[in-house]
């Protein structure tokens, strides 16, 4: 296990295995995760939503993370981004028990 697990625009390509990938991140993270990813929360409308849907990219929601063993502690989306989607940073601590 690791004290910190970091993802950087990796989950955008893992929509088909999103839940498995996030469960594995939670499993190996002893303490924290930091995910720089285009969560649905920031890409739910307009051309960004359409682009993500058309390419079958990441549609994970921040509110779903606790169900997968990750408790968000810090969330921020005002980062420079491509026009096609808006990534943001979500820092989580590992939950002791998964629901």
Question: What does this protein structure show overall?
Answer:
20% of the residues lie in helices and 30% in strands. With 99 residues, the chain is an alpha+beta fold. The chain starts with a strand and ends in a 5-residue tail after the last strand. The model has no long low-confidence stretch (mean pLDDT 91).
Summarize the structure.
With 99 residues, the protein is of the alpha+beta class. Strands 1-2-4-3 form a four-stranded mixed sheet, with helices on one face.
The low-confidence runs, each spanning 5 or more residues with pLDDT under 50, are none
Radius of gyration (Å): 13 Å
Q: Bin the strand percentage.
A: 25-35%
Helix-residue proportion: 10-25%
Inertia-based shape: globular
> What class would the helix/strand composition place it in?
alpha+beta
Largest sheet: 4 strands, mixed
Strand order of the largest sheet: 1-2-4-3
What is the straight-line distance between the termini? 20 Å
The count of DSSP E runs of length 2 or more, i.e. the number of strands, is 4
Q: How do the SSEs run, as a string of H and E?
A: EHEHEE
Question: Mean pLDDT, nearest integer?
Answer: 91
Number of helices: 2
Q: What secondary-structure arrangement, pairings included, does this model have?
A:
Blueprint: E1 2-8, H1 18-28, E2 29-37, H2 46-54, E3 70-76, E4 88-94
Parallel strand pairs: 1-2
Antiparallel strand pairs: 2-4, 3-4
